[in-house]
Amino acid sequence: MPHEHVETHFMATNLVRDIVAAGLSGAVQNTRLIVVGGLAEIAAGSIAMGLGGYLAARGDAEHYEQEREREYREIKEIPEEEMAEVGRVFQSYGMTPAESTPVVEALSRRPDAWVDFMMRFELGLEEPDPRRALTSAATIAGAYIAGGMIPLSPYILLSSAVHGLAYSAVVTLAALGIFGYLKGRYTGTGPARSAIQTMAIGGVAAAAAFALAKLIS
Amino acid sequence: MPHEHVETHFMATNLVRDIVAAGLSGAVQNTRLIVVGGLAEIAAGSIAMGLGGYLAARGDAEHYEQEREREYREIKEIPEEEMAEVGRVFQSYGMTPAESTPVVEALSRRPDAWVDFMMRFELGLEEPDPRRALTSAATIAGAYIAGGMIPLSPYILLSSAVHGLAYSAVVTLAALGIFGYLKGRYTGTGPARSAIQTMAIGGVAAAAAFALAKLIS
What we know:
Two copies of one chain form a homodimer. Chain A is mostly helical. Chain A is built from eight helices and no strands. Chain A has helices spanning 2-24, 32-77, 79-91, 97-108, 111-122, 132-157, 161-187, 191-216. In chain A, helix 1 packs parallel to helix 8 and helix 7 (161-187) runs antiparallel to helix 8 (191-216). At the A-B interface, helix 1, helix 2, helix 4, helix 5 and helix 8 of A face helix 1, helix 2, helix 4, helix 5 and helix 8 of B.
């Protein structure tokens, strides 16, 4: 869920930023500088984001492993305290010690289940999928490349920067709408509303950037 | 945790991207275009990311509310099935029905605790903090602005684009190192390792972008 939100933001931001950059480079006679700059940006961004995502996922997996080892140590060295902690989880749901004791004792007889229970219910940690680091890196890098190539493609196909900007704005707004629509369907929050929101974010951000650029240049 | 990782990526990517853009605009005689373009990018990015983060957090809160209402409906309309679901949560931790029954029955006598339990342990959802949407939006926008202003500041202070680029690279690498160090201390993954990783991501991304730009221009 968080990853998906983040990817939407990349897309919207990337699209907006490229339009703004293109708008500002109106002085440039041909599209060469925009295309080279855009491709370099996409390369840098996808590598930084992909590597960052990979290391973050690896870090989460290491953190999970460390916490699990600590829990195994604790149920061996201080079992009474750990049993009391399980009891407190249930008491936070309004149960009396008498009501929770059978479960606490049942858990204390099964070390693996006990540690799994503590990881999830005391620490709130989910076991990370070992393949998640690579998948996450590939997804983020892919989203970054797609989000960057959409607004850049008219400049690659056309040789005029002015025409490029107009086509880029249209293609970008359409892509934001389609992406928002699909995201709304997938997450079940209403496709039309999601499409409008995504286009509005892109529009507001681009308008603010243009206004700022006009104001100071 | 995920937000924090994301903010690191913004920083690294933003820093890298601005260096690359500056390097490519070597033909530009003064720093005016770089500064205006950079500020416009920061405005667009912080608005798109901040608004996107706000709407994502609001969406999470709505989703939580909908699921909670559904759980209240279900424990009223099909209480036996919901009790069986609670039982299955415990059975997945190796408990026998006899061991989990007292807890299941204790929960079934307290509807609020029962729904809270299902939200957390069956659906794996945490109750979102109502102020999180605004905090999250402000944090993301602030991180984006900080991450953008650091590499841009030498161009604002100096009038030569060539000197600007050299200072920008130094300031950026230093900022990545400091940011990685603080992040490593805060998350407990080792400050030195985190500092090196963050600088390496920035360096690899910038090098790849430069190589690509050289190759095609």
